[in-house]
Amino acid sequence: MKAPGFVDLQVNGYAGVDFHDPSTTVADVLICAEALARAGTAGFLATITTSPRESMERCVDTLRQAIERQGAAGNILGIHLEGPFISPEYGFVGMHPPRAVSPPDAFWLEKVRKLAGGHLKMVTLAPEYEQSAALIAAFSPEIIFAAGHSNAAYPQLQKAVRAGLRMATHVGNGCVQTVDRHNNPLVHILASAELSLSFIPDGFHLPEAFIRMLVNSRPVEKLIAVSDAMTQAGLPPGEYENIDGTRVVLEENGWLHTAGDANVLAGSSYNLLQCMNHLAALSLLEEEGLWRVGLLNPLKMLGLDVETFLKRGGGLRYDSATRRFVQGP
Predict the structure, then answer these.
(1) Which pLDDT does position 314 carry in this prediction?
(2) Structural domain tally of the chain?
(3) pLDDT per position as a tens digit, 95-132
(4) Mean per-residue pLDDT, 182-209
(5) Which residue of 124, 164, 214, 287 is 20 to 30 Å from 322, comparing CA positions?
(6) What are all long-range contacts of 152-156, with beta carbons under 8 Å and residues at least 24 apart?
(7) 112 is in which domain, residue-wise?
């Protein structure tokens, strides 16, 4: 099989461009999209993380313009809001600023939906809010809802599933380090067989045993690899400053951490091709399964036709001898 590249449902930025920076221009976004295409990402959702609402709105408008300028053949397939309707609890909130977190707000989401011009495809939220299920029911299936950065109890999660929740965002991350061995959001997500699971196989976010557990816990059709790539992905090693003033360090080996503590992960520096090659090297999935989690499943989640997408051409293929995906003839 050959494909134009993989489809990534969670890209925060790449090659120095930050999708949740309100100063990012349409030209910046298009340059970033081209860089991702060259790196094997044939389609992606540009992800805006939690920030003040006015800032998020400006970013949505910029991404809408970029998508419309690219046209139907472009690789920006839509917008993913990761927040602000997430948990403000320490650990669960992750790197998102707690002061900008808020409960689900249908009026504001409708404003953003219109601002996005039909390109808002996914929202990650915390199902434990009282308003979450009603919000999901009101905007599904036009918008895909995913549970993430959440400390939802099992009944809360199941209520959201019944309302139309379809995914769990970067399972195993966006969570406190220590949880109750039985009553914790990871157990609740794994117990909810209706949910597709997205995960970050970059070699840093999840250990091999955890990825193996995910692969064994779901049919391959319910697994979706994402990069969760940050602004520093695609840049040389060094120290960088994020829009919020946080300084991060990108090491030679790809480890991206806060400047103040080398043990604190600051996001992913890998694109999806790099993630998929790490996943392939673990020998947990055969070629067909790898294509599913990196391309076919995300396309299906977005409701896009696989055959039409493959007709875009491209030379991404799987080399069974090296268990790697390579670009070229």
Answers:
(1) 80
(2) 1
(3) 899 999 999 999 999 999 999 999 999 999 999 999 99
(4) 96
(5) 214
(6) 152/126, 152/127, 152/128, 152/185, 152/188, 153/128, 153/183, 153/188, 154/187, 154/188, 154/191, 154/192, 156/127, 156/128, 156/132
(7) 2-327
